[in-house]
Amino acid sequence: MAKLSQEDLLAQFEEMTLIELSEFVKAFEEKFDVTAAAAVAVAGPAGPGAVEAVEEQDEFDVILTGAGDKKIQVIKVVRELTSLGLKEAKDLVDGAPKPVLEKVAKEAAEKAAESLKGAGASVEVK
Questions:
Q1: Which of 42, 50, 66, 69 is in the most buried spot, having the most CB atoms within 10 Å?
Q2: Which residue has the higher pLDDT, 48 or 66?
Q3: Using CA atoms, how far apart are residues 77 and 55, in angstroms rounded to an integer?
Q4: pLDDT higher for 2 or 40?
Q5: Would you give the end-to-end CA distance of the chain in angstroms?
Q6: Which of 17, 116, 20, 100 is nearest to 60 (CA)?
């Protein structure tokens, strides 16, 4: 098997959906017994009057709160984001509020929310 360059690998990842990429990361973690979690700085013991460090959220859920007037467009976007079948995507849109994506990076959550809003849906990112 030919060795792929870093650029080739990145090109392959660009073509994957978020769900496929998430499944790949899980498989990679299991195969090599590692975790792909972002490193979090650990604060030393706090003295009196010190402000507690607030952990920055690194995983977000994209929740569809309503389909709006363009339900078909929203179903199409949900299918693109999740790789669900037509019936599953329709059921998700009909059952709003429901999570479309769970535990994704901030950039991916914002991009998905913009896509859904562009299709006419109302979206919440938590």
A1: 66
A2: 66
A3: 32
A4: 2
A5: 42
A6: 100
